[in-house]
Amino acid sequence: MTRHDGRTRIHGDGASLSVLDGAPTENVHLAFAVPDSGTVSAFHTAGLEAGFASLGAPGDRPRYHAGYFGAYVADPDGNNIEAVHHDRR
Length: 89
Fold this sequence. Notes:
- This protein is mainly β.
- It has a single domain (24-86), classed as 2,3-Dihydroxybiphenyl 1,2-Dioxygenase, domain 1 (Roll).
- Helix content is 15%, strand content 46%.
- It has 1 helix and 7 strands.
- It has one helix at residues 37-49; strands spanning 2-4, 7-12, 15-20, 29-33, 54-60, 68-74, 80-86.
- The strands form 2 sheets. It has a 4-stranded mixed sheet with strand order 4-7-6-5, covered by helices on one side. Strands 1-2-3 form a 3-stranded antiparallel sheet, with no helix packed on it.
- A hairpin with a 5-residue loop joins strand 6 and strand 7.
- The N and C termini lie far apart (34 Å).
């Protein structure tokens, strides 16, 4: 983790996240790449079982690209949280 110019950066496993000082952002879409479509489905099921609303059942999303398989849930603050598998064979 590093801090510079009002920004905290969290790094790990090839990913990073920046947190800025100031008022919280609303209506965020946060996507996590996962290793396979089964993990996407498990993410969605776990979200529903935890009481989160579905924003999109697991499925192909060819409008993004061939092999895009994703699912979406709303977190308690109403943000759109996605698990996505990019099968680009």
